[in-house]
Amino acid sequence: AQSVTQPDIHITVSEGASLELRCNYSYGATPYLFWYVQSPGQGLQLLLKYFSGDTLVQGIKGFEAEFKRSQSSFNLRKPSVHWSDAAEYFCAVGEDGTDKLIFGTGTRLQVFP
Amino acid sequence: GAVVSQHPSRVICKSGTSVKIECRSLDFQATTMFWYRQFPKQSLMLMATSNEGSKATYEQGVEKDKFLINHASLTLSTLTVTSAHPEDSSFYICSARDGRGYNEQFFGPGTRLTVL
Lengths: 113, 116
Description:
Number of strands of chain A: 12
Structural class of chain B: mainly beta
Radius of gyration of chain A: 13 Å
Oligomer: heterodimer
Radius of gyration of chain B: 13 Å
Largest sheet of chain A: 6 strands, mixed
Distance between the termini of chain B: 37 Å
Helix content of chain B: under 10%
């Protein structure tokens, strides 16, 4: 069965620092991968997605992610974090043959001034 | 584009009552809608998938008689929590697919349910 692991429950960074959030997936073929952000009390907003093609994906708000098949990873990066980036970040994989999304447990990002 | 709304955003009810939550796709037709439940500081757990005009498909462990889902039109799905109990208190989030992008779901802002 497919699964998604986000090893980091909580990450704290200083404003202006670079950021990398880790995501590992378990899937046999080429997966459909997503990163979502959830601000407190809000629904989820899609940051970026990977279906095929270029393994470096650009998203909104200055985020990017790189698909690495050899490492089964889809890590999210941002070169310079802003205080408004503080939120919960979820990695998800599309379940094969269905419309379902399987979510990781999330990483809470805290940004200090 | 691709906006999904939920109503109400927050609801408090007494134990034993029923609560209805609406999910609407505002600017597209949603062939499929999904209902998730999110516990504090946890991930989203899919409860059920609904397709317009047909019965919802519930995930294992979700009581279909307790969580009634109706997808009556291409823009509206409702989740009714029947005979609510305090353990049903949670954050309920819906999402919708427009049938164009594979697995691309657009999420509503969520509904915070508190059962006293």
